[in-house]
Each structure stands twice: as structure tokens, then as C-alpha cells.
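Exam review. A common question shows you a sequence with its C-alpha cells and asks you to describe the fold in words. Practice with the pair below. Do the first one on your own.
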Amino acid sequence: MTTTKARAAWWAAIPLGVLGLCGAHAGSPEPGQKELSRAVKAFLADHGDLCMAKYTWPRDIIEGDADVDRNDVVQLPVLEKLGLVHSVEVSGESGLTKRYSLTDKGQLYYLKKRHSVLGPHDAVIEHNADFCVAHLSLDKVVKWSPPETVHNHLETVVRYTYHAQAAEWMSDPEARRAFPIADRIIRGQGVMLMSVTVVLRDGNWVPVMPGQ
């Protein structure tokens, strides 16, 4: 299935920076592979979908409209060739419009699940559905930063590799070209590193979800 939501901003790697131990609480539990793996799995259970920020359907491409979504211009015709959407031409005050709707096949990839993403200025935006092309699950935790105190909680940034269960049509060369970021993430399984912030709360290491 940028939800990999790449589509997507929540899939961008978080710079580790240089973190020191001086902010950690004395005697506080150090995170381990098992605890952090559990936290990453919890994060990916909610935010492991690689989605394309196509929240609403049908989607219109208006001829000559400079504000049209450039990704839609490239991607929707490819999705139509693959049988995931179908289009009709409609006329309106804005001019000739090509309207794309999901087919029954396309509906299989329209994940109706409430989730949050970070918008401009880190504003939290809620969505109820998105068009997704893969789901990521944990391969292994590779490393993590030394815990430091942030907002009265110990916090660490975990780096991990992942498995990608992709839609079968994402192996099509045209689909791979139309969704280059998703394609790179899918092909990077087992090698590419992702990041998630994990905090210590009530004695447990838990992931920080967008907006928290």
C-alpha cells in the first residue's frame, strides 16, 4: 500500500542530532531492544500505511487550471490504466473537467481509518480515509539515541528497518514511475532506515503519535 500515509510527510526520517545522557533521570530504566521493538510495532500498527494523501473522491482535473494537483495529473491516468479508477468528462463554470472515481478494485486500497497527520506549522490535521499502496511492519530495531528529558519525559529516537507489503499493481513500471517516493520506500525494505520518537510513560516505552 505518501499512507507510508508518503505521501507522505510522516514517513520522512528524523535527524538524530547529538543527544547526551546528561538529561536522563538518575536510576531511570534504559530502553532495550525488546521494549523499543514493542513500541515501534505499536506505532506501525496505527501509522504503518503508506498512503498518497488522496483523502477524498471523486477527484477533478480541470483543464488549464494552474492550481490543479500536479501529482493527480500524473498519477490518476496511470491508476485508470490499471483499473483502479475510471473517469468521465463534465462541463462546468471552471471549464472542461475530468472527474476520476474509484472502481471496485480501487476501493480495496481506499483505507477508511481515522488518522492524524502534521500539516503546515505542525498543525494536526485529522482524516478519515486515504488511498494507500503498502503497509509497513517492523523488520528490526537498529539503533536509538541516548534518552534525554523532554517535557518531563525521557525520550529517544529509534531507527529501524521494515518489511513492506505492497499492492500487487505497484510492481507495474508505470505505477513505479508515477509514485516514485512510494516505490523507493517499498524497494528499501530491509535496508532503508525509518525513525520514530519513543517516550517513557508510566514505566513503559511508547511511541509518540503525530500531534502528541
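Now try the second one, then compare your answer with the model answer below.
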Amino acid sequence: MINMRGFILKSNSAILATSPSPAWTTTQQSGYFVPLVQASEISVSIDRQTSKQVGSQQYAIDNIVRAPNVSFNLNYIFSPHLVNEYLFGLALPATGSGKSTASGMSTRDQNFYLIINDQNGDDILKDFTGTSPRANFSGMTCAAIGNCFLSDYSLGFQIGGLPTVSASFSASNLQMTNMTGSNVSIPAINLLSGNNTNSGFLNFSNLQTSLSGYASEFTTNRPNVYRLPVVSPQNVSAQLENLQMGGSVLVTGAIIQSVDFSIPFERTDLYGLGSNHVYGRKLQLPLRASVNVSAVVTGMSTGNLHLINQSERAYDFDVTFSDPKATASGKFEIRGAKLNSMSYSMPVNDRLDFTASYSVEITEASGFRMRRL
């Protein structure tokens, strides 16, 4: 909880919204509710240059040399509808072979809006089932984060727990507004000019509860409400190829206990003379994702691991998931994963467990994709 203006701000008094890419516009943006959020964090790092001079113990220069960088971190429960993944540009409603997770992510930025209720302790979402929670947002506080580029996406499936996602963004601006009415200026910076002159606005009274219209590919209604169904452990299935290393079969049968994905979107910040802000955050391709698998071993085979440098092979993974009533389902497809490490463990009076870590090369055309079935 944060003490501000005499109010005790609580999470049930806040909602998170986002807007489509690109972040910068001079017109009105549409806002879309980000569902199933568990935690959010905003942090700011300031680039300061210091220099001393002969004959003094004090700094001669102690100045901020360019605009601060903003980090925005988000945790949410994973839903088979992939609503947040669509909002972040990771899952695209494509047909046929689909698109890689990295497709279009190099220049993609968006804005986020954390709206905090001025009524102490009241649920801001009590009426948010088909329309915006209220028409007038006067008195509320909005923390708006501009030009957010995705920098990391991590997801974990495990027995006995709901899958959760962690997403991180690198941003260019943080704007705090005490709202009057329903409009708020967008926080984005025009990265070409380095300012936000003539910036557009977002109208929260028109906050969208459907993904229809979010992008041209959405021709059917995709629900976007805070009571979305989520994925339960019994509704996840992982298919792995026959795992080998240097001709040695690692396991001949495995009962999967957990599967974790981590995709760092490594970027290079591009600065230039005449602007305090980045011109862009270039994506460093290929991305190098990691996949960790834990399983109970039901059998082992023969082979020699010293032959790995002669017969290394890549592996394909498919992880399918659905909600408990199978009203929505989807799939993660990992292609060309390579083994980095593996281990066996067997405590006294316990089972033989197997863990393995893989790396995946992701380009704009291949490596990893997520889609609805």
C-alpha cells in the first residue's frame, strides 16, 4: 500500500489498461482492459554524469544527461484465451502456419495506464462485465507509462498450481495525472522528434471489454473481461520427442511435472544528438529463449554421452492447454530446441527425477509461436 494525498491505495481500487501499437499518436486511442493481473511494478532509473576537478572535494558536475528510463513489470494468471498475449503482440490471430513470437516486435511499443480509484477500498471492477466501470473518472489518479517495449516474457506450468506469467517492459516516460473527466493525455513520446507536442489522448469511458477491433485480424468477438477462465494443471499436456544426447536415450518414458519458458527480448537503445530520448529499442535477433522441463522417469536406455559432438540433434515441443470446461484452448509450439544441461536425482525411498534445460533460437520466422486452437 502507498500513502498518497491522505488515501490508502489498494489493489482492488485499481485497474490496468493498455492501448494498441504504436504508442505515439496525435488522435484518440482506444483503451483495452488487461485482465487477471496479480501485481505490477513501476521503477525509474536516472542516468547521471558526475565529474570532479583539481582542488575540490565536491563534484563540479552532477547533472542528468538524458531522460530517465522507466521499467514496467507485470504478473498475471495465464488464460487460454491468450488475451494479454494478443494485447502485447506475442500471439497473432493468424491462420495456416502462423507467425513467430518475434514477428513485428522490433519496433512495437504501446502505452499502459494504471487507474487508481479515489474511493478508499471500493472495488473498481464491481460493475465491469460488459461496459466501462464508470463514465466519469474525475478524482481518480492515473499512472501512465509511455513507449513500452517488451523486454522479457516468462511462463511456468507446474503440477498443483495455476500457471502465471511475468512480463517486463522498457519505457520512455511516466506520467502521473489527477483526472478530471474521462480523458487523459497519452504518455508516449514522439521518438522521432523527442517530444510529445500535440499528443493524443485516451478516453477511459470507452474502455473496451472485447478484442474486436484491436487489430484488423480480429473479426470475431474475443472476450476481455476480468473473470476470464484460466488454465488448470490437469488441462495442460506437454509432448516431447524421444530425448537423446549423443545417441543415448535420456528417458524412455516421462511423466511431466513442470515446463517453464523464458524469452528475453534483448534490445539495444538507440540515442542520437538532438534528443534526450531513445529513437528506438532495436531487437537483437535471434532471440535465445530457454525451456526447462522436469519429469518423473519411468525407464532408461543405453548409450554413450561422449558422442554428443558427433550426433547432436534438436527437439520439438508442443504444449497444449485449455480451460477446465474446454471452452478455449491453445498451443505453444517450440521448434529446434537444443539441450544445454540435464540431471537425474533419486533421494532415498523416492522416485527418479529428470530435469533438463534447453535453448531455443527464435527469429521472425521460426522457433516459437503461440496460438489459439
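Model answer, second protein: The chain has one domain: 2-47+62-372. The CA atoms of residues 194 and 275 lie 5 Å apart. Full marks require stating both points clearly.
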